[in-house]
Amino acid sequence: MFEQPVALTTRRLRNAKKLRYQYVNNLSAKFNRLERITNTNGLPTPENSAAESSENEEALQRKKKRIRRRLKSAAGESYSDSESDEVDNNHDNEVVEDEEEDQERKFLNNYELPQESFEKWQDDPSKRVPIQRSKISFTKYQRLRRHAKRKMNTSIDLASKRNKIYMDTISEGFEMVDPVDGKPDTFQMKHISILTTLLHLHVSRREWDAAYTCFALLIRVPKVDIRNIWGIGDLILREREPIKSLEFLSWMSSVYSSRSAFAEDVNHRTPPVFTKGSKTHVPKFATTWMWESLIQCTKNSLETGELEQIESNDGLQDLIERISEMVLAPPYMDASEVWFIYGLCHLIKADILSNQFDGRLAGSARDIASNQVIQHIQRTKSCLQTCLSKGDFKYPKRYIERQLEEFEKRLDRQEDTPDDSDHEVESLHDKLDTQSIESDDDSS
Amino acid sequence: MESELPRKSPTGAQLGLGVRSAALYVSERQQSNGSESKWLGACDDQLAVDLSKLCVSNKRCIINDRATRTPSNDEIDDDDDILSSDDEEMDEEANEHWREVLLSRLNWDRLSPVIPPNLQYFKDVEFDDEHMYDVKQNQVKSPLDFVPENLISDLTRSDLVSPTRNKGKPNAKGSISYDPAVGSLLITGAVQTIPDLRNNYNQHHIIAFSCGKTNSILKIGLLEYTSPSSLTEQIRQAASIQLGSTIKGIKLPEYSSMLDRRSDLIGVMTESALHVIKIECITSRMEIKTSVCEPLPFQDFSDFPFADFAFNPWDLQQFAVIDVKGNFGIGRLPKSFKIGHKARILREYGGSIFDPEELSNWKKIEWSSSFSRLLVMDRSKMIELDFRQDWQLEVIQSKTWSRLLDYQRLDDDYGILLTSREIIVISTKQTSEHISREVSWKHDLDPNDSTLRFCIRKVNSGGKKLLLVSIFSRNHSFLYIHPFLMNGDESLIQSAGSSTILQIPHIKNGLRGIWLHDSTINDLNESQKLDIFQEVCLSLFVNETDGGKLWHYIISNDSTKLENWGTYTDASRTNLSDVEIDVLWPKHMHHKLDQIKKSITFTKTDKEDTAAEDKLLQAYGYQLSEAINELLIDWNDPQESLLGTQPLIKDLVEIPHDFNLKEFGSMLSQLFNHYHDQALVFTKFDTISSPILYEKIEDLEMLYNKLLQCWDLVTPDSEILTQGVIKHVIYSCLRLWKPSLYKAKETQIFDSLSKPYRNIIGMWDDDDTDLIRPQTDTTSADYSGILASSQSQIPTIKSSQSRPAKKHRMVAAGLTTGRVSKPSSNISSLRDTGSTFSMLSSSQPSNTLPDTMTPAFTLMHPPSASLSQSQSSQRSRRKKKRVGGFG
């Protein structure tokens, strides 16, 4: 019932996929041809022009890909080994699968492979097009279908019985109840599937020790890619021993981060969203590691009293230093989230320092202390500025600004009076949920 | 905008197990109370509601009729044996294994009689073609104007049909493919009828579901609390509506919160049309009165059947439909639901999202952020469009890593999208330009499973709103529940803690549909709402994948509630004939079990006291013989009616509670022998044993031992159980009668008859074969063949030749290989005697015929008054009586 941390491939599935892509490609090719025929007769409509533009893009993309491929061959296939395992190429029967690769790639070449999320999300109003008014009719659809089926008669005839049923099912618009056939075909797969189920069940029941055992067993099975289940592992470790969790994440991000570009022209077995990084995509384990260590730092600084302040501050300082190194190179350089974290690091530092700020200090010591705070505030601002400049990150800007102002005000205070903290909390609520006060009034 | 959490703009917060996402540092928060952390993030572990305590009740109620339904039309039974699961084979293997073990141990024939393949139980019946006798079907065939192509190809290419199919073995997994366009066939929700609105009454909660053989009947029931103490609602009444075509989806319109009212409509999509049903009123006696709008057939809209429909939350009369290939349109409902008023499609607002690359029939249409904006989706894309401003935008393109599986509109501000990888909360706020991702949760469920769907339920939890997203699949019976948390004014939505997995008991093959219902959210007033803190109690309605039964469970985090939840009492279903208490454990069954237990324990305790036992038995024997003697005297009186001629032994004398079986057997045999001289006949043990063991055993102890071996495999208390069984069997079967008595009765009755009847009987009695011959000659050759075969075949079931041969082989095998494990020397010796005995018995020709077979028409007793009946019926009547014990 759960996703398995290995790429499932059996010959049957591969053949089924091949058949599906072949059928789909045939359908869409015929459809495009039909549309074009009607288009030449009709007047140019916005849809047509939109289609054309997309075709141009397609052509452009294809060209780009060709160039990339040539460059790649020039570099002697010097793809990093972290990606070679993603590529769906089985050398032993490459010739046989050549066509399949073609079909799948032919299909996917029309689409962008998103890295940030599983789907491509679009919220740009400028991409709006008029509603497509022409409806599909039964006769037209039958024509498409007949054509597509006819073109792949031989491959359907050669297909296994199960795949024939699969083709019949999907071409009727139905779906398979269990496309994978339910049964793992090797003992190893069986083992993996049982362990995965156990792992998830134990996590959902919060039995961390048992879950830990499952996790430990699972990652030792060959073929299992730890990148597919790092999140669960991190959660288990976090519940058992938080320090280990940070170590694990930092190990993950140092080992599995990649600076090479994301290869769009290969068939990936696993989506890169949660599992991989590339030149343009900061892996999720890296950001999780940053957030996790940041949260850990604030926790420490509050749990341990004033005495160990220096030590815990060092943790934060370490983090700041590490991030400052990371943001020098891609992908972190262009990642707004990393810049935001960097900004928050300074913000927290400023918060701690301004809280520690002793109003009774005077002279140069006072100047040094206040300068430190101001420096961190400045850095926060500049980091957040960089973050904003990337254009894809939103945060409550005014709220952070007010927080920074608050820190600055603390420096002017003579004596630390905690009486206005309550007021602050209220104002926070005020700002965060603007309607909460009204609703409170309602209930009272 | 200030209230927003930090996030990346197109993706929002992407969460999963162990994954952190952007959070906001709140410096002023007080750490002192422990619960509040300094972070405000998309995932709030601190506020996590502990769902791990949630449980599904073990009890359940059945909601719909028990009538077995053929696999509903949304599933094509392409081939049901390909996926026959391992378990089933295992089960069968295990059964076979145990049977073999049993047989080898007992030196028996197979437990079930070997039925010759050409045996015909009934005569061929020629049905009259007269239309008078036609079965009136009240279901119209769906007016599809094309034959599905798969049907034709199935018929022409027989290789698709697996040869194993002919075995008729039902597939444990159900069918292998399904129609994804079938939505939820079971919903609950609140309705407010117009009289309710006028009189300012509360809303009613209803349940609507499909049932019937072809899934074409819509039933509407009322959910209500019968008493304030009851935990969940009960179903009261049902209105049922025939729709004439397979139902593919049921929906209740959810109006915008601005309108502040509930709908009184139910939309039903069938294979052929869209029906809208209006609930006119719900009377004080809880009767539902409905009126049905004239259905909108899909031909009026496009060439393809409907895949989905939606009601406009802002406009009570507007709806949107989409067909299986992606053509969509807007329609208007008529103002009044009278005959002739029909919903119509507004031609100016149509369109299509047809994509040749998308094969699945799954399409969905739902209203987005405003009254003219729609979300239209198929498996690989979601398009937001404004049909008044005439634009569309592909907001989601999922051609690569994931597929869209389900979408549900939550309220005016949010919708929830399930993809094969994530649960995504989508904001459909009117203020924003387009829909956007808020929070997503990677659910880690099998991405290949396209049958995943979900249902959402809002639960109040301590001033906040808890959103339970429960994902289910046709492939397994687990519920994956993930909680999201909304703050009071729904401006902030967070993922609350990690998800939980519940298994729904009793269901093996997966869930076709589920529906969570929580009436507390609406029925309780504000002060009570605060009281339900962290306590969840929901009704769960489950639609099984196979069998088509609907079940009612409850889900709660309070175990006492689960325990206390009683299944429906009889009173609550007085008017709803098809609400039934769970058939698995009827209430009287417990009583029976208790009785049996009691009797067993009683026997157990007194077992040692053999001396007393013997005495008891002696006394019993004495009493019995006295009673029989009295009976003999009574029988001498010729006026005694026929009824008293075959008394049960247990009716004569009160039975002792327990006995030594051996002694009892010998006592009985003594008794038989004694009265044999007086021409009294008792039921023989072989008559008792043959229906139980398909074998004639003339010794009581043998019978006991054989039964004991059967039970021995099952339970440690086999001895006591077997004794109990034997006792009960004997007492309920053992009769005695005097054959000579019948002779007298016969003549007496014969004399009392008038002459023509006497002639008939005389003729029949003399030569019955002559009477049959002319008949067979006149009837067709088939008939005689059947007659002949049935006469010749039935004895072969238990023919005398086959048994000794088999036995011989068995014994030989046991001797040569030593494979037969003998449980105890006692039993084996007994078995030896048994086998020799059965050898002996088989040599007697009179025993070769089974007891159920009358040796060709020897009239044992005169036919009773019903002489006008045909011969065949008389024959059967006599056969029946033989079973009763005329050994």
TrEMBL record, chain A:
A Pfam family annotated for this UniProt entry: Rrn11
Biased composition (Basic and acidic residues): 424-433
Annotated Basic residues bias: 62-72
Biological process according to GO: nucleolar large rRNA transcription by RNA polymerase I
InterPro entries: RNA_pol_I-specific_init_factor, TIF_Rrn11
Location of region: Disordered: 38-104, 409-444
Protein name per the record: RNA polymerase I-specific transcription initiation factor RRN11
Gene name, Swiss-Prot/TrEMBL: TDEL0G04240
From TrEMBL, chain B:
One Pfam family recorded for the sequence: Rrn6_beta-prop
InterPro entries per record: RNA_pol_I-sp_TIF_RRN6-like (IPR019350), RRN6_beta-prop (IPR048535), RRN6_HB (IPR048537), Rrn6_K-rich (IPR048536)
Residue ranges constituting the RRN6 beta-propeller domain according to the UniProt record: 179-505
Single GO MF descriptor: RNA polymerase I transcription regulatory region sequence-specific DNA binding
Bias (Basic residues) ranges: 875-887
Segments of skewed composition (Polar residues): 794-803, 818-851
One cellular component (GO) term of this entry: RNA polymerase I core factor complex
GO biological process, one term: nucleolar large rRNA transcription by RNA polymerase I
Segment forming the signal sequence: none
Start and end residues of each stretch annotated as Disordered: 794-887
Domain RRN6 K-rich C-terminal: 757-886
Domain RRN6 helical bundle, first and last residues per copy: 601-733
UniProt name for this protein: RNA polymerase I-specific transcription initiation factor RRN6
Annotated source species: Torulaspora delbrueckii (Yeast)
Gene, per the UniProt record: TDEL0F02560
